[in-house]
Each structure stands twice: as structure tokens, then as C-alpha cells.
Amino acid sequence: MARILVVEDDKRLNILICSNLSLVGHSCESLYDGPAVYERLCERQYDLIILDVMLPGMDGFEVLDSLEDPHPPVIFLTAKSDLKDRVKGLRLGAEDYIVKPFELLELQARVDVVLRRFHKTEKIFLIGDVKVDFEARAVYKGGRPVDCAPKEFDLLEILIRNRNIALSRDKLKALVWGYEYAGETRTVDVHIQRIRSKLGLEDYIRTVYKIGYRLEISNEN
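^ thats the sequence. predicted structure below, dont judge the formating
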């Protein structure tokens, strides 16, 4: 997965972001002020920078403006919701602009979009004897193709992208079927059972009591 630099002076939020992104397989490192970013980029390479705007010593806008091309893509985090600030961030070259407070699941989704744009996301995922090819939208078990309906594949991909994180039935329904979908959450249960049955993933797709489901991966594939 990706190597991500998280630049956020709120240490609790920084740790929370890193912990959640690490759960899905990313490698994260933390910084807490603006001036340290340039020095760190001279030492190491990253696939993405998550950059707070309100930083001590040097704000996020100044940090991005000072970076030499080519530099990793940047996602801004900020409490500034004014349109002029969002426009400023995007014009400086940021790939995205997320206003606090935000859901960590939303941040993960935005991270995935940016990494996909820069071809930094995984194309193949292996779990047991199951192989998932995201680009071809194909699934194989024991080397043989498995016929998965479009929504089954979408649901499986959401679980993989957010592995080791408990996702509610309502959240899964919204992510796979859309927020306007009026169907029951039972639809999620039915599709989960089909995926488990077709791919033999009963030991990996865990039911989280009174919440929903989690794809549990103890070791990265």
C-alpha cells in the first residue's frame, strides 16, 4: 500500500488518522509543524501528504507553495470552510480539500481516490486462495473464475479497501447502493452471505455484533 506523511499539529488527531490508515495497510509517519516537511521530504519519499492548513511556524498553504516539483500529491485538512480558502488550496495544486470535522471513513475514501489517480493503489488483492483483480473486476478462487454480481464485487471491494475496520450495515448500504437507496439493510446481509458462500471467506468476513461486518486480515497479503 501507500507511504503517507500526516502533517497535523493536533497530536491526538494525527495519531487517530495514522492508526486508521495503518489498519487498511498504509504506512504512515507523523509531523506536527510546517517547517519540518521540506527536511523530511529531502530524506524520504512518500506517495501522499495529508497536510493541515493551520500549522505552527508555516501554514499548509505556504508549505505546499514551497515544495519543488515533482512532489507527492497533497490532501488538505482544515477547519477553514470558506470557498476562497478551498479555491486557494486547489489552485496551489492540492488534490483534495477536507473540512474538519470529518468521518475517518470519508478520509480513507478520499485517500483511495487520490492514490488511484496517481496509480498508487493495489491492483490485485490476495486472501487465502482468493484473488481479486480490481481493474478487471474479476474474482478467482483456487485459480478458477468466480461469477460475482456487480453489487457483490462492489461490496467485496469496500470491505477490502476498509479491511480491519467495522462497517455498519447502513454505511455499507450507502457506499454500495447509494445514499438514495430505500431498500432494507437486510440486502447487505444477503449479499454478504453470497460472498462468503462463493469465496469461502467465512473466517475472514466477520459479523460485528449489532454493527455490521469487518474483513479481518491479521497479516498483509
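The domain at 3-117 is CATH 3.40.50.2300 (Rossmann fold).
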